[in-house]
Amino acid sequence: MASGTQELELFVREALARGCTREDVERAMLAAAWTQEQARSALGAYAAIDFPVPVPRPRPYLSAREAFLYLVLFSTLYLSAYNFGSLLFDFINRAFPDPAVREFGEDRMRWSVASLIIAFPVFLLVSRHIGRELIRNPVKRLSTIRRWLTYLTLFIAAGFLIGDLITLVYNLLGGELTVRFVLKVITVAVIAGTVFGYYLWDLRREERE
What we know:
Layout: H1 2-17, H2 22-31, H3 36-44, E1 46-47, E2 55-56, H4 64-95, H5 105-136, H6 144-173, H7 179-208
Antiparallel strand pairs: 1-2
Helix pairs in contact: 1-3, 2-3, 4-5, 4-6, 4-7, 6-7
């Protein structure tokens, strides 16, 4: 598959160098049974600028330094989101106690607060640092680790949202809705929805740019 992609890009390069238009090159690839996505990806490897020879675009890359930064960024994001939700759950349990359930809130609340005090500022600092680097050098948006971790985060957030809705419908059908339960469902939906919405918006903005 990799050799086929390289062969296709070599074809595009030679065709563009001989003066063929991008539309003609794409039609030729589609006629040869390449998919539209493959054709546009191969054409996208070269910038649409007026120059005697095709000019390649920057390619996705993997940097150990950026891998470290993004792993710290998303790890602290997960820690912050989880412990913030856990803290809100404990507040809900205190506001709407269930006599049938024995709560273990104090130690858990202390752990959640400690985690937020450390993890959330680290997330903000790393996010700010990465944001400044992306402004100075937008090509760093092509970082492979960045895209993989972003899509992984979208997957995790979507999983929480789907599971949250399934739990809501399950309890609704069983007639077991309580204020305590509904508030917890809303908490999960807001946290997961915020994370999902932000990173989806960021990816779409990146594609537009």
